[in-house]
Every structure is written in structure tokens, then in C-alpha cells.
Amino acid sequence: xxxxxxxxxxxxxxxxxxxxxxxxxxxxxxxxxxxxxxxxxxxxxxxxxxxxxxxxxxxxxxxxxxxxxxxxxxxxxxxxxxxxxxxxxxxxxxxxxxxxxxxxxxxxxxxxxxxxxxxxxxxxxxxxxxxxxxxxxxxxxxxxxxxxxxxxxxxxxxxxxxxxxxxxxxxxxxxxxxxxxxxxxxxxxxxxxxxxxxxxxxxxxxxxxxxxxxxxxxxxxxxxxxxxxxxxxxxxxxxxxxxxxxxxxxxxxxxxxxxxxxxxxxxxxxxxxxxxxxxxxxxxxxxxxxxxxxxxxxxxxxxxxxxxxxxxxxxxxxxxxxxxxxxxxxxxxxxxxxxxxxxxxxxxxxxxxxxxxxxxxxxxxxxxxxxxxxxxxxxxxxxxxxxxxxxxxxxxxxxxxxxxxxxxxxxxxxxxxxxxxxxxxxxxxxxxxxxxxxxxxxxxxxxxxxxxxxxxxxxxxxx
Length: 463
Description:
By secondary structure, the chain is α/β, with parallel strands linked by helices. The chain is built from 17 helices and 18 strands. The strands form 6 sheets. It has a 5-stranded mixed β-barrel with strand order 2-3-4-6-5. Strands 8-10-14-7-17 form a 5-stranded parallel beta sheet. The protein has a two-stranded antiparallel sheet with strand order 1-18. Helix 3 packs across helix 15 and helix 8 crosses helix 9. It is globular.
């Protein structure tokens, strides 16, 4: 399918839910401020109109950001305006946490380094997503007196991100696309131009979306540098937390016993550990034990608290290649020593062969229409908990064999079934859903055999 026909088909079936990904790239709004793609696309959708050229749209957006999205060096100037009694509208990722002991609602405003602001009840009641890991939006702030002190308060909020997506409309739209055409749509939406990738490469890139769709799905992608491993995780969904290298602690991952704040694994749909080959852990033995518990059961224990979560774990790491394949057969050893434990690796459901994806080039970038990033991110989020009645996909035929292999293939195939809207009775199901799920788990088995050949065989143990 050529680009023009694909554009026409996407526009006909998705209408206002689409945006020209090439225009987004040409305007280069993110070079002005570091913002996620879904915020960038929201701004472009707000200011773009047929009578404006690109230069005018760019100027209006950058003027708007200069006024409402301050650079780090301007935070004291913002506070001065608030201190002087002015109201200030800021674009930011606002987040609310509840301190039950003190009976307080505490608002975080990252761009001015504020963690203890307040929020009026009416605004929070109308924007419950602020309690679910935070939300990007335009917020109006005032300073009000509180006893002998003054507090910054959020009195008005307009979210930048989409609310619930009508899944029935998406199911209806899918009927107008072949499986390959649907993959082209997904590639465009992710920011890739399908024509720049072979069919095998397209199929491989799509696998990055699976842990965004399925609860408690744990995966890895090992690849050389420059293949765009982390791009979608930092730009498609507000429900993802991307950690790029550095040391992680028990408090960050699980729970801070001093502040009582739940850690990253308890707050998001997916925790992505980028630059996995260089990441380090403070208190590695304790984190190792908690990882094993959590990746198996979906819960972990801190002090006297048992915390349950649906958050998945994704490890992204660079590896060296030789003739297009991993230089060493035990490529898992590129990861920190913690991940050389076969018992921990066995709890990962799949490994994406990132070495099969080409380096990202200018030709790889999307050249036409795709679904808006905020809409797509919410669509993926809804698929995690949607009922079979509302969304009749995610079915997997009965599998028998090794319990962890069966669990892994079932979860992976469920995610692929939801992503591609294919069930076992569909002709494309085995090729696009079941076989890729088996391949993902087979790579885990291969690495288990490399790490512990006396206990594990390389082949998949299901039928």
C-alpha cells in the first residue's frame, strides 16, 4: 500500500483522531522544550488550521510555551508572580498524592520544583487521573494564605491528554483494514514509516507495544544502539515511566518508608529500565529478592505492607553484533550481574530480538497520518482491563506444558491478539499472534540454557 492510499484510508476511518506525523516532525516543537510527543501533538492540534502556514503555527506554539511552559531557569520568576498575587497558567505534568495521616492533598508541579502545593476539591473530583501517576495539562495557580503560611493552589485544570477511547469504533475501523494494513497504521502511529521496514522488521518493532497492553508482562529488548528502543516508551503514554541508567534504590522501586510514597512499580502500567547494561542497584540483594517475588506474583512486601500492582517491567539494553547477530550466544550477560540468575530470568515472558530492527534513519520517520499519540496511549491503557464483552479479542487456545512457558506465551499472545484484533479462528492468528509469542518466550529459554544448562533446555516446553 503506497503512502497516499494509506493516508486516505486512515483519514476515512479515524478522522479527527489523526495527525500528520510528518508535520509534527517538521515543526520541531520538541527542540524548543523537552516534552513528550503526546503533548507536542496536542499543541499542534490546538494551533493548526488550514489558513496558517507552518511558520505561523510554530510561532504561536513557541509563544504559548514561552508563556506557560517555563524553562528551569525561570522558576523563581514564576514564583515571584505568584507571590505578588498574580494567577499563573502552567503546562506541566501535575500529580496529586494523598497524605491520609495529615489529611492533606499534596500537588506536585515539576517545572517549579514544588511538591507540596494544594488543589481545590472540585478540580480533583473532575480530574481523577491526577491521582494515577500524574497528568499533563494546563493548570491555573494562585497563592492563598493558610494560617501563618502561604500555599500554591491549583484552581483550574484542562488536561492535554485524551480521556476514554471508544473501543467499539476502533473495532469497526479494524474491519476496513487487512492485518498488514493495520500494522502499517500502528507503525505510523508509533512514528515509523512502514515503507522503510521489511514485513519482518515491522512485526518486530510492534512487539515493543505488548507490555503497554497486557498487565504484568515482563520483557526485554536487546539491540545495538540507534534502533529507537526507548522512543515509544517516553512519548506514547503517560502511564509509562522510563528510567535512563543510574542507580535505583528500594525506595524508588517499591516504597519510600520515610515519605510513605509508593514506588515506581506500584504507580504505573510499565516501568522501563533503559540503558540496562549500565544500570546499578543500591541494595542489590534485597532488590533482587523483591524482583523475583514481584515478577512471579504481581505483589511485593515492604515492612508490613503487601503491595499489589499490574505494572510490567521492560529492560532495554545495548549489545554487540557480529554479522547481524549477537556476538555471543549468552547475550543476557550484557546485563548487570543480578540478571545472570536463571530464576529471575525465568520470570521474564519474552525477549525481543532488537538486532532484527534497523537503525533509525530520516527515512524511518513517519511520512503521513497516524493516530494521535494521546489517543493511542489511552487506547493501549484501556486494553489492559477491558472486558470480553466490550472488546472481544485477547483469546488464546488452551496450551499445555511447562507452567512458566504456558503463562508467558498466553500473556504474550493475549497482548498480540488485542493489538492486531485477531482471535484463534482468524486465518492470520497463528502467523501474527501465536508464533511470535512462542518466539519471544523461546529466546528466554535459550538464555536460561546458557545460564544454567544443567537445569534448563533451550526448547519451548509447551504443546
